[in-house]
Design brief:
Elements: H1 7-16, E1 29-30, H2 33-43, E2 50-54, H3 60-66, E3 71-75, H4 82-88, E4 95-98, H5 107-115, E5 120-125, H6 131-140, E6 145-153, H7 154-160, H8 171-179, E7 180-188, E8 193-194, E9 201-208, H9 219-231, H10 237-240, H11 249-258, H12 272-285
Parallel strand pairs: 2-3, 2-5, 3-4, 5-6
Antiparallel strand pairs: 1-8, 6-9, 7-9
Helix pairs in contact: 6-8, 9-12, 11-12
The structure holds S-adenosylmethionine.
Amino acid sequence: MDKLSSPKKTAEIVNRHGFKFSKSLGQNFLIDENIIEKIIRGADISPGDNVLEIGPGIGTLTMEMANKAKKVVAIEIDSSLVPIIEENMKGFDNFSLLNKDFMKTDVSEVVEKYFNGEKFKVVANLPYYITTPIIMRFLEEHHPVSDIIVMVQKEVALRMNASPSTKDYGALSVAVQYYCDTEIISKVPRHMFMPQPNVDSIVIALRVRGEKRYEVEDEGLFFETVRASFGKRRKTLLNSLQSVDGATKDIVKSALDNSNIDSKRRGETLSIEEFSRLSNELSKLLDR
Ligand code: SAM
């Protein structure tokens, strides 16, 4: 029997159900078995694992994961996919489908109800229009997530994985790498989807660190410092950091001096360790 990932099988299923692809929901289904295998390998799914999938489509990745994991929960916004997923996932008693918008889903409730509050992995071929907010939700809300293995637009993956002083390095690189170690799993050319998107993709693994690597005193101020530093790319830190609430030129100069960072440097050259030192110094000087 053909796998769900075979182009013939995917076409047969969507045609038989009269399913219409929605561009605005980012519906580009994977039709390449090798990539599915690489995602599963990158996620290292074993029989004890809980997996949360966002946007299962017709269930191509879902089925392969349910064959290996303890429990798979998929959240799909499009109700016209529900009968298709139910048909394909019939017989899997370790699978639950939630017909919901992920952005309006209480993740803690899902984790409690379906995973007994235990650790879980996120695996998804993400709808591109909400990639960054989805990833940031998992990182900022501090759920017990150990790994996030996602297919995203190539440019976004390169930004998440970038090092200081490279063209892709920015606020997203710092935000992701503050919490995770990143690993590029595979490039995915556009012809591996039905229908073909206008962009190429990359599968990236974000390994969430159990222990904090950076000693940041005020996370809110840390991220405000990062955003301000990247806000005006061509400005020196002495100038750009004055947009931090309450930071005068004198305060910024002292914070930079105290953290041993040259005030003529630009945000895109700072490592996360330097951002953390700088925000800790700012925190001492700002009255808030
Ligand atoms: N996982 C499937 C695959 O790899 O073939 C489908 C991936 S497709 C790129 C994205 C999926 O996310 C679609 O099924 C789409 O309906 C769903 N989706 C889009 N926005 C969503 C949202 N806000 N919440 C949950 N699912 C969403």
